[in-house]
Write a structure and sequence with these properties.
Blueprint (H helix, E strand, L loop, with lengths): L4 E7 L6 H7 L3 E5 L2 H10 L4 E6 L7 H9 L5 E6 L7 H10 L2 E4 L4 H26 L11 H14 L5 E4 L6 H11 L7 E5 L8 H6 E2 L11 E2 L1 H4 L4 E5 L6 H13 L1 E2 L8 E2 L3 E6 L3 H6 L5 H7 L2 E4 L10 H14 L7 E2 L1 H9 L5 H15 L4 E2 L17 H19 L4 H8 L3 H10 L8
Parallel strand pairs: 1-2, 1-3, 3-4, 4-5, 6-13, 6-14, 7-10, 10-13, 15-16
Antiparallel strand pairs: 8-9, 11-12
Length: 446
């Protein structure tokens, strides 16, 4: 196990010499006899695992214990205490919400060793997870799974051209984010990116909104106005939900794609506009063509470079990473005391089918951060039922899950290089091969 540093905070009796026993077990132990010393130590050093040992003499306010735990910056805490200590509502709440696990005195050294080892594995997993979050792709698309990786590759390819792009995908899957990524990767990145929701503009105004109008073109047109396509000159115009564009406007858009000119309402001459068109639709435009709701010639003009944004249910491996990304964003915008998700909440997130896709995930996390009264977000805070798989999970099963997740994350991060992955995990290549076989993990990306 590569992570062996531990902070041992002993309040009262040492419960049979826990610190000395840890030293004998190969842990690098830093001891603190009170919370003040522990807080000072934590300002200079980070510990993946922290152990709180409370002997029979306990006269420490719960608020001071909570302050010490919160100051540990993500350490996995384990408590060793007398059974009566859990009769205190404040301490019981602290253990439930902020501790990885606890053990009741008298100690079972074998069980404690397993708990601490599992806490260390979870700390390693959390560290790798944070590395992925902070090394977010320059495209602004969070995720490490094969589906989002393929999408990034497609975006980089289409961004190098000037041809129109048609983005497909369900509502809430991130089509506008993909369009922005195409713009940012293109040579037009310094130019404007203008997003237009074709389904949100009143039919009577959409012609003027898209192409602009001259002064006096109609009642109320008291001044000349540039259209949204014209304001994208030198950049990219993103036409979202283009399937909602009226048929008569589709003709004007086709002319722009063919000639790179527009005509404002009431104008007597055309204007050249240098804007790349990226369009998106959650409906099947080929089907819309078949029933006469979308021009066939416009469809073929737009469908030069089609890409598909996958729904969240097809990239479930990214749900925990996305949830953490949204959590950090929401916490940064508020004064919330929330510190993260319970294991049950993460299990519920990965068990949900996400009909509303990434937008639904963001909304649920945002609501939970605002509404929860706990330190850790629970399934109920997210409006989700607790996953059956998260109830009654044994320590061995939890260790197996953490081990498999750590291997998968490391392999993804090092490009499936066995030598590099083994080095980062602190094991031999043969051991890694054995563990991969044990967990049915393929050396090639799935």
């Amino acid at each position: 196990m590569p992570i062996r540093n531990i902070l041992c905070v002993t309040l009262g009796e040492d419960a049979g010499g826990v610190a000395q026993h840890l030293l004998g077990g190969g842990w690098q132990v830093v001891q603190a006899a009170d919370l003040a010393v522990a807080s000072r130590i934590q300002t200079h050093q980070h510990f993946p695992v922290s152990l709180l040992v409370m002997g029979k003499a306990r006269a420490v306010p719960d608020r001071l214990l909570e302050a010490c735990v919160k100051a540990s910056n993500g350490s996995e805490w384990v408590a060793v205490c007398e059974a009566q200590a859990l009769e205190s509502p404040g301490f019981r709440d602290l253990v439930l919400n902020c501790f990885f696990d606890h053990q009741i005195l008298p100690l079972d050294w074998h069980d404690l060793a397993l708990i601490l080892e599992h806490a260390g594995q979870r700390a390693m997993l959390r560290s790798q997870h944070q590395t992925h979050l902070h090394a977010a792709d320059t495209l602004g698309m969070v995720g490490q799974g094969p589906a989002i990786t393929r999408l990034r590759e497609q975006i980089r390819k289409v961004a190098a051209t000037e041809a129109p792009v048609l983005i497909g995908g369900e509502s809430g899957s991130g089509k506008e984010l993909a369009a922005r990524a195409i713009h940012q990767c293109s040579h037009r990145a310094a130019g404007p990116f203008v997003a237009v929701n074709c389904g949100a503009i009143a039919p009577t105004l959409i012609h003027s909104e898209l192409f602009g109008h001259e002064r006096g073109a109609f009642t109320g047109a008291s001044a000349q106005r540039h259209g949204l396509i014209e304001t994208a000159n030198g950049g990219t115009v993103f036409l979202d939900e283009i399937g909602d564009l009226p048929l008569e406007l589709q003709t004007n858009l086709l002319r722009f794609l063919q000639e790179k000119t527009i005509s404002r309402v009431g104008a007597v001459r055309s204007l050249p506009v240098d804007a790349r068109v990226v369009a998106a639709s959650h409906v099947d435009l080929a089907e819309a063509v078949a029933i006469g709701r979308f021009r066939e010639d416009l469809f073929y003009r737009l469908n030069v470079l089609p890409i598909e944004v996958p729904p969240l249910r097809r990239r479930m491996e990214d749900v925990p990473i996305l949830a953490e990304h949204f959590f950090q964003s929401c916490v940064g915008e508020s004064a919330s005391r929330v510190k993260g998700f319970t294991r049950q909440a993460l299990a519920a997130l990965t068990a949900h089918s996400w009909p509303g896709n990434v937008r639904e995930l963001y909304n649920r996390v945002q609501r939970a951060v605002i509404m929860t009264d706990q330190r850790l977000i629970a399934p109920a805070d997210l409006g989700l039922a607790e996953s059956e798989h998260a109830v009654g999970i044994g320590l061995d099963a939890a260790r197996t899950m953490a081990e498999r997740d750590a291997i998968c994350l490391t392999l993804t991060r090092v490009g499936r290089n066995i030598t590099h992955a083994a080095r980062e995990l602190g094991i031999s290549r043969m051991t890694l091969y054995r563990l991969m076989d044990k967990h049915s993990i393929s050396q090639s990306a799935e």
